[in-house]
Amino acid sequence: MHLRRRQNETEANTTTSSLETDSSGNGEDFEMPKPFDTALSNNFTASCAAWFKTFLLNEAFTQCHPFSLMLQTSSAMFDVSKSFFRISQTLEETCRADMTDCASTMGQLARDLIADENCAVDYANDNPQVLQAYNGLIAYEPLYQAGCLRDDSGSYCYANAVTNRSATTDAYPYYLPLGVPLLGGTRATCNSCLQDVMAIFSSFAGNTTQPISKTYNDAAQQVAIVCGTGFVNQTAAPLKGLAPVTSVPFTPSLALILMLVLYLFQ
């Protein structure tokens, strides 16, 4: 696999320099996207609305810059995804976070979210934003690994995928860990990035507490049709461990899918 994490200052400086020389943007005015950066709906219980306000200001949470939550809930993330330079900057910040510490934070927040005194009623009623928050919290680790994946030239795989206008479905597989199924007819580019991303997702798909457990197998079969049967594991890899959270109804965001399709085909 080509998953590479920041290991020393030299690597960090090399990556930063490569971003700074990109002519498509100026790093000085960059603002990191944030989850739920548009107005929350009014369809919350009072206790859940109060919890959300506290949750979004939680410093341990905000310092993680969770890719898994920004994908579905950040308007700014949608905007930066139009620029290879900007999305690379975003991923750079996301991947600076300590995955182990942040995964622990996300797991605790997921448990707090569905507690009776917080959003249990909203969760039971399938409140879309509560489900997005929960799925994003428990899918932090697989999407951290996928989001921080680089190709052989050092570029982030997701940055390549989401800005590839000649293959407009390359970014679709990244939504699988959030419970969003791969759209029929998706023909993502059969490269090492896709292969490694699917291998990461396969390793989590055997965990029934993860949304990817509901979306991986069908997606892998679609990828195998396009890329060949040996390209990807067509069933989940053996389960290595259970996440300390409960399962959730996997409700894809139709609005998100439509927004992504409209952008890619504009």
UniProtKB/TrEMBL annotation:
The keyword Transmembrane applies. The chain crosses the membrane at residues 242-265. The keyword Transmembrane helix applies. Keywords: Membrane, Transmembrane, Transmembrane helix. It holds the Pfam family DUF7729. Residues 32-235 form the DUF7729 domain. It comes from the Eukaryota. Residues 10-26 have a biased composition (Polar residues). Residues 1-32 are annotated as: Disordered. This is DUF7729 domain-containing protein. It comes from Sporormia fimetaria CBS 119925.
